[in-house]
């Protein structure tokens, strides 16, 4: 359906209570380049990348995160507990009594020659990482923990793309670091993952739009980043989407975003040609055995870690928020919570949530994510074309 532009209006708290009307209708926002896309499941704020940020071989060297040294200097995204600061009048937006139909979308493999392409396109990087792997010590000891809330589920934690056998394979090679510039001009990073055959990332909304300040910029995605190296190249962005309810409320249930990537900066190939993509799931039960990933700075910024355990809902977090025991913190924001975890395969491995922040009163022992549902991931994918 062809979209229609409405007259200019301000992106304000009023947008959150507007009804979803015409599919993919847009209304220009106060800031140049920003629009609101209206879907049957809710309103989505959108922004397109300036030409200078649609990374290619000509503009790559000038990018603020072009080199490994520049990326190493970037600080992880710090968590801000938005839910604890929600005004009482906004609590009504947490209610959700609708019966939702569970759904999912499958992941996909890169072409059989994806790793061959990457090795040839980024040979020096592969040689460096494989030399490092040859002298890599045994993986750090896993952590075991218990929960203080809900069903008191325990969890285990272990390295993600630490070994060669993992950083070259699914699902680990589809997860990477997302770098960006915040509205105050500082650089930061989150975790993100390729979650669509149209080269669309899923991540946390707070990694895309800084609550109370505006959209971040200069997005750069490095899949399977290890020790500052980019074995599958670096990707700029063309467009990004967040729920308008994130802009209005900043609460956990809306902390989901999507970003469409441009081709790799030197080869021009889409990211899916190198690593494929993960599946997605929505409207699933609150309690599922889940593997949550992230580049957590309290453990290591050099590779991902994984927390495995049962998720659950908590009255203190509200509707459409899931909780899991985990000791990871800053930098893991936006990382995939995978259900149907299936190593070395494109089957299963469905993103069912992304890391949002600490569970209330349990910093460093449990975290939460928005439960993927019609109102967040389905609306976002409708708006961006997953």
From TrEMBL:
<dbReference type="InterPro" id="IPR009003">
    <property type="entry name" value="Peptidase_S1_PA"/>
</dbReference>
<dbReference type="InterPro" id="IPR043504">
    <property type="entry name" value="Peptidase_S1_PA_chymotrypsin"/>
</dbReference>
<dbReference type="InterPro" id="IPR050966">
    <property type="entry name" value="Glutamyl_endopeptidase"/>
</dbReference>
<keyword id="KW-0732">Signal</keyword>
<protein>
    <submittedName>
        <fullName>Uncharacterized protein</fullName>
    </submittedName>
</protein>
<feature type="signal peptide">
    <location>
        <begin position="1"/>
        <end position="30"/>
    </location>
</feature>
């Amino acid at each position: 359906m062809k979209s229609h532009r409405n007259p200019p209006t301000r992106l304000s708290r009023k947008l959150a209570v507007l009804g979803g009307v015409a599919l993919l209708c847009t209304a220009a926002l106060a800031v140049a380049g920003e629009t609101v896309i209206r879907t049957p499941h809710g309103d989505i704020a959108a922004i397109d990348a300036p030409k200078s940020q649609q990374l290619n071989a000509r503009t790559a060297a000038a990018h603020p995160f072009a080199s490994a040294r520049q990326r190493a200097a970037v600080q992880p995204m710090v968590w801000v507990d938005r839910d604890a600061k929600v005004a009482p009048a906004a609590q009504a937006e947490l209610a959700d009594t609708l019966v939702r139909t569970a759904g999912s979308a499958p992941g996909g493999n890169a072409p059989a020659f994806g790793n061959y392409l990457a090795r040839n396109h980024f040979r020096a990087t592969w040689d460096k990482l494989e030399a490092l792997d040859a002298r890599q010590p045994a993986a750090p000891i896993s952590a075991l923990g218990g929960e203080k809330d809900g069903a008191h589920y325990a969890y285990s934690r272990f390295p993600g793309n630490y070994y060669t056998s993992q950083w070259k394979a699914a699902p680990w090679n589809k997860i990477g670091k997302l770098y960006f510039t915040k509205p105050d001009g500082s650089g930061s990073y989150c975790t993100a993952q390729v979650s669509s055959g149209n080269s669309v990332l899923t991540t946390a909304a707070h990694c895309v739009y800084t609550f109370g300040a505006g959209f971040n910029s200069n997005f750069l995605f490095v899949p399977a980043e290890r020790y500052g190296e980019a074995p599958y190249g670096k990707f700029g962005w063309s467009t990004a989407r967040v729920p308008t309810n994130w802009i209005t409320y900043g609460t956990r249930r809306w902390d989901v975003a999507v970003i469409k990537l441009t081709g790799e900066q030197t080869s021009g190939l889409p990211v899916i040609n190198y690593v494929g993509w993960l599946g997605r799931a929505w409207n699933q039960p609150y309690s599922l055995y889940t593997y949550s990933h992230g580049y957590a700075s309290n453990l290591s910024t050099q590779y991902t870690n994984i927390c495995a355990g049962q998720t659950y809902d908590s009255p203190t977090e509200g509707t459409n928020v899931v909780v899991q025991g985990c000791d990871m913190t800053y930098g893991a924001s936006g990382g995939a919570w995978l259900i149907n975890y299936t190593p070395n395969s494109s089957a299963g491995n469905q993103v069912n949530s992304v890391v949002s922040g600490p569970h209330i009163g349990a910093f460093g022992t449990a975290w939460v994510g928005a439960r993927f549902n019609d109102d967040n991931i389905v609306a976002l994918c409708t708006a961006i074309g997953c």
